[in-house]
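Changelog-linked ticket: zinc ion example.
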Amino acid sequence: MRLFFCIAFASTIGADLFAWGLKGHRIVARIAEHQLSEKSRAWVQELLANESLPRIANEPDHWRSNPAWNCAATFHYTSVDDGEIYSVNNAAVASDIVPALVYFEKILRQKEAPHERRIVALKWLVHLIGDLHQPLHVGRTCDKGGNTIDVLWFGKKTNLHKVWDSQMLNDSDLSYSEYAEFLNTQAKQPLAEIAKGSYSDWADEAPIVRADVYLCFGKDGCCAAGKNCPNDHNSFGACESDTPFLPSLGYAYTEKQRALVERQLLRGGIRLASILNSIAAGEESASAKLMRQIGDLDKKNGNRIEQCFDAALKKN
Ligand SMILES: [Zn+2]
């Protein structure tokens, strides 16, 4: 099911999957930058030369226009349905965001890997940690991560995925660095607690994280247009129905979701820094067990992420 989802998702939605938009990815990267160890800062700087993490954070989305990277469309997302957990077995076949992150971390841990390869792997890792924390990039299969749910956003028709990708954040007055400075002071748990876990553990947070994403609040209204508006509705996008009405989202929705958006950006930034610091320190990866599981599956199935990566680097 997941493989079908990924293929259908990639071919029908394609370039619309710009997770977190420019600003969200930069905020995650900037938060991470603040928390790099000295060793890790030096190592990252050596790879990026005159660039910074926020500057490169969106590059993999820009590469979508380059046919050499067509094979990487599935790297940006996965699905974990309500009540389910991430399936490593499916992941190895689907070449989705989790094995992609595992692979790019592995490259970054290989000091002998060619410089160029490590630079591109770093750009992917930074970007995909952002994607993994956008609640609808680890979405439900039935609505393709909110892509099939039409909504009115401040009166204009769009879809729920796009609202979460960029529209909500773009409406904020803060620049990405101002936002990151602010969020850096907002962690409610110790950073080490937030950083705990592997890529698949973080994907497993998705069903809980996105629970409120399908609610409407206050004056916005779940039923701005369309037939069959239920009387007592405060949610939309039920998997079993076609949502015959058009939810209208605006100020009330943004206000209610703000805390979730900010928590996810902060988690992404803290976790990115923790991975980079662990690589610099030569510590065992927090995803080591997952790496071994995926490595075993790759021996049987071949590693599609690596095949795609090698082919794309050759073409560029
Ligand atoms: Zn992306």
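Closing comment: Example verified and attached. The beta strands are 78-79, 138-139, 150-153, 156-159, 225-226, 245-246, 248-249. The chain has one domain: 2-315.
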